[in-house]
Amino acid sequence: TAATQPSTDWHVKENAREHHTSKFSSDELIVRRGQAWTITFKGTEEPEQNYIFIVETGPKPSKATKTLAAFGLSSTVSTESWSAVLQSSSSGSVSISISSPHNAVIGRYKLSVQSTSGGSSSTASLGTFVLLFNPWSSGDNVFMSSTAECEEYVLEEFGIIFAGTKSRISDFGWNFGQFQEGILDICLSIMDRSLYHRQDPVTDVSHRNDPRYLGRVLSSMVNANDDQGVVLGNWSGKYEGGKNPTSWTGSGEILQNWKKSGFKPVRYGQCWVFAAVLTTVLRCLGIPTRTITNFSSAHDADGNLRVDEFYDASGNHLERGADSVWNFHVWNESWFTRNDLGPSYSGWQILDATPQEESGGIYQCGPASRHAVKEGEVDLEYDCPFVFAEVNADCMYWNYDSATGKKTLIFSKSTEIGESISTKAVGRDDRVDVTKDYKYEEGTTKERDVFKKARKKLGLEDKFDPTAPTPREIEQKPDISGKFKVAGSLEVGKDLNLVLVLANLQSDAKTVHVNMTAWSTLYTRKPVHEIWKDSISVTLSPMEEKRFPIKIQYDKYQQRLTTDKTIQVTAICHVEGGVQVLVQRSIALDNPAIDVQVLGEAKVNKEVDVEVVFTNPIDTEVMDCVLQVEGCDLLTGVLELRIPPLKASEKSSTKFKLIPSEAGLKHLLVNFNCDKFADIKTFKVVNVID
């Protein structure tokens, strides 16, 4: 018979301190696996040795699936199985230390105790607790030996995401907020709503001891494809009926909205949103995770380690074929062992929640071992060929004639893809370059050998590819070279000044007809609106270099710019009697600045004023101004303030109050949006004192 619940003391504060779970705002006990915790319960006078403790999780707990365990008192703690050790007992109360195995299933458990006395036994429910992964414990698959890394990749709620282009890397702050109220419960519901769980709940729960399995499942659940997951992707440039992907400043609002709407996908996300939300969920569950930005990232849709881009004779970038090269792409790395592959493949594993290609019939990607990617071991699970191509694919640029359907190779490049691969430093707000962990240096024989190895493993070496350029096409040498140089500032609200530099590489004169275009694009380089076009004919003397200034006025691009603030300029140069030359550059414009000042000293539980100042830099009025502010331990949720319209050159000052809840260095994230400037972001470090 089940008795009423005796009053249980979970020692929540002390246990949380020991288990690095103090940042969760919860009255429920949250502990990590493979480590002991203490509980005291009252109302039992019988001798201790008659206790049997029962822990159970999931829909049909059983010993066979390791979702149920029954264990008595033992003399020492075990990390191989569930165990309980008597700490102390006094009149009517017993203190017990309980420990789970290193490889226990994570999630919410029920704990009950069965006591036998005089031949009759009774069972009392003690309540529930949540068990998480334990990167501080050497027996756990997610163990990290550096405590500084555990603090950054599990406990840190602020992150920096890198974006822009490889020639101008920009960054913005993000509030992961994995310890905000209610987020842990939402993460547990995400697991329970996956396709894997719906198809076979018992097996799904029994696999939740494995970070490899959970990483893959969660990479599919963070996007809405297939399974009504958390975020709906939108790369159209039009975001009606939802929030523009560049406007989010943290994961908390997204996860809370998903739950509040009855688990309807939140509109809208692009790659960094998927990666940031996955970081929040995995850090919350205790798997060390970070975001990674890859510049000039290939999306190789047909798996031939080659991306093809097509241009017409006027220099317009054509959307032909499914391959593309993104200015940047953000994915995740999570840290765990790969017992399925062997020790050298353990460590950082790539997961990608952005829905790009199906894997095993659904939109999920990874975990792919970073070491396997670097060594070209593309036959190792999971999704290595796709990730290998993202950082290594060869680029082919074609001229396509829509009238005849004929395509001509302009040039091919094997060093274009996968540059300046970036992540936030441990314990500092700086960028760290991890390109060398993904590939050997471009231009070295080792790098080409790995590429050949990957092609061979994928069976591409022996197969005739009718779409590939011929050796003769590849060997054609251009007579001229060209590049776009930036002259002056690259700021939204100002004219864009560029210089096209053309150089004759030959010792005889060349006549060149140049067709130029500028298009506003998404960060994926998807063309959205034509902004400008022009054509010139020039004669270059032997070995001569000429410069042609180009001005694209603000009023020409203002209406057509996307919220990614990216413009692609292209010049296709038709050289008389020679091969065509393609010159292109993706330009990400900077927003004007906003200034954030904390007025006075920030103290725990005391109000402090913050002032945000924005000056309208253009000579027309800006309207629909909204300021959005968030920051862990500084304010709850997201604060939204509407600001009156600003005339030309007018300055606005907005003040609001914070009440910090914890001491230390905290990050305040600010996003300013109006009709002329989309999502001006900044963050301010606030030093909160006790």
Question: Could you report the average pLDDT, rounded to the nearest whole number?
Answer: 94
CATH homology-level superfamily of the largest domain = Transglutaminase-like
Q: The CATH topology of the largest domain, please?
A: Coagulation Factor XIII, Chain A, domain 2
CATH architecture of the largest domain: Alpha-Beta Complex
Give the C-level CATH assignment of the largest domain.
Alpha Beta
Helical residue percent band: 10-25%
End-to-end separation: 51 Å
Oligomer: single chain
Low-confidence stretches: none
Give Rg in angstroms: 29 Å
Taken from the alpha-carbon principal axes, the silhouette is: globular
List keywords for this structure.
Immunoglobulin-like; protein-glutamine gamma-glutamyltransferase activity; single chain; six-stranded mixed sheet; 16% helix; Transglutaminase_animal; metal ion binding; Coagulation Factor XIII, Chain A, domain 2; 14 helices; 690 residues; Transglutaminase_C_sf; Transglutaminase
Describe the overall structure.
The chain has 690 residues and is of the alpha+beta class. It has 4 domains: 8-132, Sandwich (Immunoglobulin-like); 147-212 and 245-256 and 272-458, Transglutaminase-like (Coagulation Factor XIII, Chain A, domain 2), CATH 3.90.260; 477-588, Sandwich (Immunoglobulin-like); 594-688, Immunoglobulin-like (Sandwich). Helices cover 16% and strands 39% of the residues. The protein has 14 helices and 39 strands. The strands form 10 sheets. Strands 1, 3, 5, 6, 9 and 10 form a 6-stranded mixed sheet that branches. The chain has a 6-stranded antiparallel sheet with strand order 20-19-18-15-23-24, sandwiched between helices. A hairpin with a 4-residue loop joins β21 and β22 (406-413). α7 (251-260) packs across α8 (271-285). The longest helix is centred in the middle third of the chain and has 15 residues, at 271-285. The radius of gyration is 29 Å and the shape is globular. The chain starts with a strand and ends with a strand. The model has no long low-confidence stretch (mean pLDDT 94). Residues 10-23 have a biased composition (Basic and acidic residues). Belongs to the transglutaminase superfamily. Transglutaminase family. It catalyses: L-glutaminyl-[protein] + L-lysyl-[protein] = [protein]-L-lysyl-N(6)-5-L-glutamyl-[protein] + NH4(+). Residues 1-23 are annotated as: Disordered. One of its GO terms (molecular function) is metal ion binding.
